[in-house]
Description:
6 helices; NAD(P)-bd_dom_sf; seven-stranded parallel sheet; SDR_fam; Rossmann fold; oxidoreductase
Amino acid sequence: xxxxxxxxxxxxxIGRAIIDRFGEEGxxxxxxxxxxxxxxxxxNEFTTKFPGQKIMASEADLSKKEEVQRFAEExxxxxxxxxxxxxxxxxxxxxxxxxxxxxxxxxxxxxxxxAYYLTRAFTSEMIERKAGHLFSIGSxxxxxxxxxxxxxxxxxxxxxxxTKCLRQELKDYNIKVxxxxxxxxxxxxxxxxxxxxxxxMKVEDIATAIWSxxxxxxxxxxxxxxxxxxxxxx
Length: 234
């Protein structure tokens, strides 16, 4: 039976790299984005590259609970994914004491609440079949405080705690849970900065790390992966 992966925010950056990596291994794909044109482009490229595999790409704003639940129900019409990657996120720089009003709510809803509600939508079925692997795309901002991190850092600290709780809750059901904590990775968020591209990690490296963690035997789990640029944090 063909295995499947659900990756939120899959049209660009880390999400897209994960889709490509698992697509190379024969996985069907479920993904979403707020941008319909990006989804259409992804579908066309995926089906051209992997003609024997399925992709379901849905337009959804996962900062809204009702959109998360609608997307989950769409996926369930086809399958319960073998792998779930909570990747959707947004970064708005600022300090807690002075960032614009609304930054906190936007980043908590997008970066944390989306993962909470989407994970809840599938865990019952994963528990019943006693199989599955959940990945949370966090950040080193969830490990180390830094200037201008503001509410983004708060959301990523919370994401790490959320994932640690899941690990404890689901381990007895043969469900694996892994936190991915990357440093500066070259995505659209960094475009235009005056730094050489070699100073950043590649999105493909994050995807490879996830694939490697997924491929351990049933007797082992990677709980956390911290990945930093070779020359250190920016």
